[in-house]
Amino acid sequence: MTSAREIMTPGIEFLKTTDTAADAAKKLAQVDIGALPVCEPDGHLTGMVTDRDIVVKVVAEAKDPKKTRLAELADQPEVVTIGADDSVEEVFEVMKKYKVRRLPVIDGTEVVGVISQADLARNLPNEKAGEVLAAISQ
After folding, report:
1. Over the stretch 29-56, which tens digit does the pLDDT of each residue have?
2. Residue 65: which residues within 8 A CB-CB, separation 6 or more?
């Protein structure tokens, strides 16, 4: 069975909790994606930050993006992840259950990649891909 490691986008960059929303916006624009993992300086994953988070939680609230630390935006009680050796079927179930479009892939405690909804859709039969899309979009 295909594993998460086989379909993930590897070598993903991440941001630090000490980075600012402005730093995140620049990085997201540089790599032309909508979300990145956020880690403590020691590498421990604390969450994800999206371009939408920056707009809704910083810009819309008139906060200063140069002073707003990602620790404020990406601090989540439990970060939804998938193990690198978990099956694509498990990825499907986790994305569906938690309604997430992007899933950090971990190997032990290290973030080794991210699986997007598109990655999953390319590796599932059409009806399964449609099911995860419908579940996430509800």
Report:
1. 998 988 899 998 887 888 999 999 999 9
2. 20, 21, 22, 25, 54, 58, 59
Q: Quote the CA–CA distance of 92 and 123 in Å, as a whole number.
A: 10
Task: Collapse the DSSP code of 58 into the 3-class scheme (helix H, G, I; strand E, B; otherwise coil) and give the result.
Answer: helix
What separation in angstroms does the CA of 41 have from each of 53, 56, 79?
A: 21, 25, 17
Report the relative pairing of strands 82-83 and 102-107 from DSSP bridges: parallel
Residues 17, 38: contact at Cβ < 8 Å?
yes
Distance CA(120)–CA(70), nearest Å, equals 27
